[in-house]
Amino acid sequence: MHRLVLAALLALTGAGAPVTAQPIDYAAERAAIGRYQDADQRLQDVGWQLAAANAPYCPRVVPGIGLQLQDMASYGVPAIARAALGLTRDFAVQTAARGSPAARAGVFTRNREIVRLERFDPNHWPAGSAMDWQRLVKAHDHVEAMLTEHGGITIGFADGAEARVQPVPVCATRFELMGEGRKAVADGSRVVIGMGFPAFDYPEEEVFAALVAHELAHNVLGHDAWLDRNGRSARNVRRIEREADRLVPWLLANAGYDPAAAVTFMTRWGSAHDAGLKLRRTHEGWDERAEAMAAELPAVRAWLTAEGQADWAQQFRREINPAESAARTGRR
User: Fold this and answer.
1) CB distance 275 to 241 below 8 Å
2) What is the pLDDT along the chain (332 residues), one digit of tens a residue?
3) What is the three-class DSSP state of 48?
4) 51 with 64: CB under 8 angstroms?
5) Which residue(s) pair with 165 in the sheet?
6) For the whole model, what pTM was predicted?
7) Which position among 14, 20, 104, 263 has the lowest Cβ density within 10 Å, counted as fewest Cβ atoms?
8) Are 71 and 136 in contact (CB under 8 A)?
9) Neighbours of 300 (CB within 10 A)
């Protein structure tokens, strides 16, 4: 999946075509990268808000600072990407999620060149050919490891400055933008959303957040692992999709969004895009899905009024038994 996320950036740097004598429009390349970064910023802002606010209830949390890096090696033509952004090396800031420790530090500006992640310069790590996504994954893994082992990380910039950042606990999910495509998926550890997904066109942040919350719900409820154990039949997929839908208002409420935005999202997206027998085999109709979300609102609002937070870890009714296994129950 990482390959799909980053390979889509081909279009931003000459579509992978051989470099020729034809002049390169660096302003156009820079603008294309900027559009991708704008969309990624929106995803990271919302993802961080959901993951940080719901950390008290997630079964697994990790330390996070809300920093998203970029590596020129992941572009189709790294040299063009470097020139378009005015970089001399490969690693730079991609985004700092709003409200995160990285954003509060005030130094992680977009495209600021990075030369050190604690003791290591990621620019010195070997890179493969163009569109090498592994090195960027390694860099993010290294940041998380330093936060876990040392309770913080010192990041050095090409201009000689450095910043020490301490993490906060967040739900164990990374948010990744795919440069093309109209899909939104969750794989247990990541939420991946294509730039072409219709929700990117919704002006209201909370309605876009409902999409992100649905995918996050799959991860925090352990759906991918449950399907691995119990089979990915249409019946099982319908069960976990309904459960994810129903958790969305709880996740939104804890992050400060109107929980009713879940119903707004499903109504707006579903009435325009929920069609076709293939989708209906694994999902209920959009109107049924919206009704299931709306049915959660009284409980969510009651908990907000009484406690200020919606404790879904204790109060949310599960559709599945997360410990269930087809091997034990004899089902296939």
Assistant:
1) no
2) 344 344 445 445 554 445 455 889 999 999 999 999 999 999 999 999 999 999 999 999 999 999 999 999 999 999 999 999 999 999 999 999 999 999 999 999 999 999 999 999 999 999 987 788 899 999 999 999 999 999 999 999 999 999 999 999 999 999 999 988 889 999 999 999 999 999 999 999 999 999 999 999 999 999 999 999 999 999 999 999 999 999 999 999 999 999 999 999 999 998 887 655 445 567 888 999 999 999 999 999 999 999 999 999 999 999 999 888 865 544 44
3) helix
4) yes
5) 153
6) 0.91
7) 20
8) yes
9) 24
Helices (H), 115-180: 134-150
Cα 80–chain centre separation: 27
User: To 5 degrees, how large is the angle CA 233–CA 234–CA 238?
Assistant: 120
Q: Which token pair is 159?
A: 């201009």
Rounded distance, CA 219 to CA 175, Å? 11
Structure tokens at 214: 């649905």
Burial bucket for residue 184 (CB in 10 Å: 0-12, 13-18, 19+): middle
Domain boundaries, the chain: 2-15+25-170, 197-329
Residue carrying structure tokens 């933008």: 177
151 C-beta neighbours (distance < 10 Å), count: 10
What's the CA gap between 120 and 122, in Å, rounded? 6
- Which residues sit opposite 64 in a β-bridge? 168
Strand partners, 155: 117, 163
CB atoms within 10 A of CB 321: 10
